[in-house]
Amino acid sequence: MKRFYFLSLVISLVVLITGCENNNNANRDNTNTQSNDQNTQTKISKKTKKNNDTIDLKRRTGIPFQISQATQDTVPLLGIMSNLEKNLAVVQAGIWRGDYQIISEAANAIVNHGYIPNREIQKIKTILGKEGLKNFVAADKNLHNKAKELTQAADDKKMDQIVNRTTELIQRCSSCHVKYRVPLRDNPKWLEP
């Protein structure tokens, strides 16, 4: 199982490196433009630079690495899962870039994801049963705890712990998906209003 997660991290790295190489080839043709732009770059605020880094990362990889902000609102389960996926991708991009701040922000957004609406909680209970719902909630609490540990590791700038916590998060997400996604998604009651 660990090989699968290591392989997924390696594949992510290859995608990022490939994007970087393509970007470097294009930049060799524009050396003069880069020199002129470098003077302008020093005047850009940190926030603008951060946005430019995100835009540049998207241009190199084709993947929009933007944090899906945490919310105290209720969000459909599919929306929560989509945001968790995006934020975990931001964590991985932050690892490759050595950007502790973005890792911390993305991990914190994972900790503070939206709440599942009551109607969906009732569907989960109907499909998985009372014990299944209890285990589903426990898995979510575990995700919160691991994401808090990841946030702390990023704040402490401890890359080895960040990688370990990220791997644990991926393992826990995958385990939860194996256990709950198919029963929920394939049950006709899930599609009922």
Write the layout of secondary structure elements.
Layout: H1 2-28, H2 31-41, H3 46-61, H4 77-97, H5 100-111, H6 118-155, H7 159-185, H8 188-191
Walkthrough of the structure:
Residues 1-26 form the signal peptide. One of its GO terms (biological process) is electron transport chain. Residues 24-42 have a biased composition (Low complexity). GO terms for molecular function: electron transfer activity; heme binding; iron ion binding. This is Cytochrome C. With 193 residues, this protein is an all-alpha fold. It has 2 domains: 1-64; 68-193, Four Helix Bundle (Hemerythrin (Met), subunit A). It contains 8 helices and no strands. It has helices at 2-28, 31-41, 46-61, 77-97, 100-111, 118-155, 159-185, 188-191. The longest helix has 38 residues, at 118-155.
Defining key terms:
single chain; 2 domains; Four Helix Bundle (Hemerythrin (Met), subunit A); 8 helices; 193 residues; mainly alpha; 0% strand
Beta content comes to under 5%
Query: What is the CATH architecture annotation of the largest domain?
Result: Up-down Bundle
Whole-number mean pLDDT: 76
Task: Give the CA-based shape.
Answer: elongated
Q: Helix/strand/pairing class, anyone?
A: mainly alpha
* Discrete helix count: 8
Helicity level: over 70%
